[in-house]
Amino acid sequence: MSEDRIVIIGAGVTGLAAAHSLKEKGYDPLVLDKGKSVGGRLATRSLKKGQADIGAQSFTAKNNHFVTLKNELLEDETVREWYRGLPAPHEVANIGIYPRYCGTKSMNAVAQRLAGGLEIKTESEVTAITQTDDGWLVELKNEKISAAAVILTAPVPQSLELLKKGGVELEEQLRADLEGLTYHSCITLLARFDQKSKVPAPGILHLTDDVVEWISDNQKKGISSEPVLTLQCQYRYSAENFDEKDEKLTTEILKAVESWLPGEPVETQIHRWRYSKPKTVASRPYFAIEKPSPLLFAGDAFVDGRIEGAFLSGQAAGAGLAELVQARRPETPVS
Fold it and tell me: In three state form, how does the secondary structure of 117-161 look?
C-alpha cells in the first residue's frame, strides 16, 4: 500500500506499537526518531564500565493485549520477572501488587526487539509538519517526506510545536485538550562505584527523600557487570533544579542518599528528562484530526503514563488510522 504513505514520528513504545498495528493491517509505515536508537523511555546508557537503564526500570502487564506481548517477550527471553512487591520497609504495599518485568539484558533491548521488521530511520529530527492538498509534508533538516497520514507520538508539547512551525492551525477545542496534557520534568543521576552498593536485593529501593525518589542497582538487577546506580530525583526537586550545573546536582543527589552508597563514585553522568511522567492523562487512547487528511496524537499521556499505557495508545492509534485511511479510498466499481 505504498500509495498510502504513513509516517510515525517517535520510535518509543507508542510509535513501535502503532507501526506494528498498521503492519497487521497491510501498511508499511515509516518511523522517524531524532535519537541514535529506538526506545524513548526504554533507554539504556553505557558507562566506561557497566551500563544502566536510565528511564523506565520495569513494567507491569494488566491489559490482555499487553499480557500477550509480555508472554511473547518472556518466551524469547527478551524480558524476565524482576520482582513482586517491594523490600522492607515498603512491604506493606505489596498486597495485590502485580509482578514487575525488566529487560533480560537491558530495557532498551526490549525496544530493539519491538523494532524488528519495521522501517525505522533514527537520527532523523523532524523540524516541521505542514499541510498539503493531499496530505502532509514532514520536514527534516535535509529532507522532506510526503505522507498521506501522520501519527505523532512525541511528548504533546513537542508535537504541537512541529505543527506550529508548519503553520498548521488546530480546532480550538482540540488544541485546548492537547495543551492540557502536561508533564513532569525529571533529573536522573548515574553513578558507578568500585564496590557493591547497600541497596537491598532485588536492586530497587523506593525512598521518601525530598531529593531522590528511587534508586536502582543495575548490577543487582542483573544487567551490569559493575555496580552502577540509577538515581531518579523527585519531581519537585527536578523542576526546581532542572537548569542547575551537573556538578551541583551530583553533589546534592549523592549526599541525599549517602547511607545507601559504598563510598565515592568513580564515574557519574547526569541525564535530564524534560518530559518525563505525564501530570495529566487523556480520557481516550489518541486524538485525531480526520479531515482533510488524518493526523493522530498518541503517547504515554494517553490511557495512562506507564509503559503499558504507551503501548496500548500506539496500538489503538495504529488501528484507528488504518480505518481512517481505508475510509478515504474511493470504492472500487462493481463490474
Answer: CCEEECCCCEEEEEEECCEEEEEECCCEEEECEEEECCCHHHHHH
